[in-house]
Design goal:
The protein is an alpha/beta fold. 30% of the residues lie in helices and 26% in strands. It is elongated, with a radius of gyration of 22 Å. Residues 81-148 form the Transcription elongation factor GreA/GreB C-terminal domain. Pfam families: GreA_GreB.
Length: 154
């Protein structure tokens, strides 16, 4: 029989499972972010211990590898001091005539629906380093954002 007609197993035809992609750049986090990462690791470890299905357990292990890497590479950023926006800042801004309060956080802590944006997001990049009273350019518009107030995230 020709080798072309032999089939060793069904697994050789499955799509490869790649690791979850890590965000580019440093893994800067707030204290809250580090706690959230630790909680996610503990949650996944418990889920793996309780899971009976091998395939489901492998999916959980893949997620756990991602979170272990995020925990190992996390760099906690000191809370910002003074009136300068940084990672860990709660910022009240005026954008397009509307006031908004935004928290600048690490990637894994970000939740845009809750106004927590990652420091790598375009809006956060425009805000970081700005001071209260300053107007910064954003989205191709000069002085589009006015920094009204900044405090450390409680």
């Amino acid at each position: 029989m020709s080798v072309a007609f032999r089939r060793e197993s069904d697994e050789e035809h499955l799509e490869p499972k790649f690791e979850l992609p890590l965000p580019a750049g440093p893994n800067l986090v707030t204290e809250r972010g580090r706690s959230l990462i630790a909680a996610k690791v503990a949650e996944l470890e418990s889920a793996i211990a309780a899971e009976q299905d091998d395939e489901a357990r492998n999916v959980l292990k893949r997620q756990l590898r991602y979170w272990h890497t995020r925990a190992a590479t996390a760099e906690v950023v000191a809370p910002p001091q003074g009136d300068v926006v940084g990672i860990g800042s709660r910022v009240r801004i005026r954008l397009a005539g509307k006031e908004r309060v935004i928290d600048v956080v690490g990637h894994d802590e970000a939740d845009p629906a809750a106004d927590r944006i990652a420091f790598q997001a375009p809006l956060a990049r425009a805000l970081i380093g700005a001071e209260v009273g300053e107007k910064v350019d954003f989205n191709g518009k000069a002085e589009a954002i006015e920094i009204l107030e900044t405090t450390p995230i409680p």
